[in-house]
Amino acid sequence: MSDGAGVLIVFEGGEGSGKSTQLRRVSATLARRTVAHVCLREPGGTPLGTEVRRMLLDRASDVAHRAEALLFMASRAQLVEREIRPALDRGDVVLLDRFFLSTYAYQIAGHGLPEDEVRAANRFATGGLVPELTLLLTFPVTEGLARAARRATAHDRMESMGEVFHRRVAAAFDTFADASWQRDHPECGPIVGIDAEGPEEDVTKRVATALSARWPGTFLRTGS
Asked: Is the pTM value of this prediction over 0.70?
């Protein structure tokens, strides 16, 4: 990050994996070190994305699987154009909660949509933007859903799709850290798996270690 170029760091994982918490902790570290950065999430981050998020997470919404995928892509295209690319052009660090891998896990593996078509739509939505690094937090499905339930009064539409669906999603996430899968999906960029079990502080240290291995001048290896 010393050359002034912005970088895109994505946090991924299943429901209740703690990715949003770890993103906030990384943001706090960057703020203490006065590193310019922005925090964004998918879907969301723009007025259009916020409306898409409302529809997609509302349990009363009747959304077909293909329509769901395209709504995610529309939100992504707007976020890339209006927020992510401008921040990268400024030289900021962009911390993003969900991106490509969630689409591949939820819509391709979870719903069974055709991979080639979804990947083509993704390329169109992003204009070829590739993350510098994706941190993939792994956490047991059942425990993750229970954790997600505790933080809200009711499951949202995605969370309420059932354990069988979420096991397909989790199995897909497990494959994404595999080197051969990454070679076959270069649009996703490098992916590092993070064990998200155990105390929150321990997970933070694992995240900091992964980040400092890539950017030792910006991130503290021990985390905080």
From this structure: yes
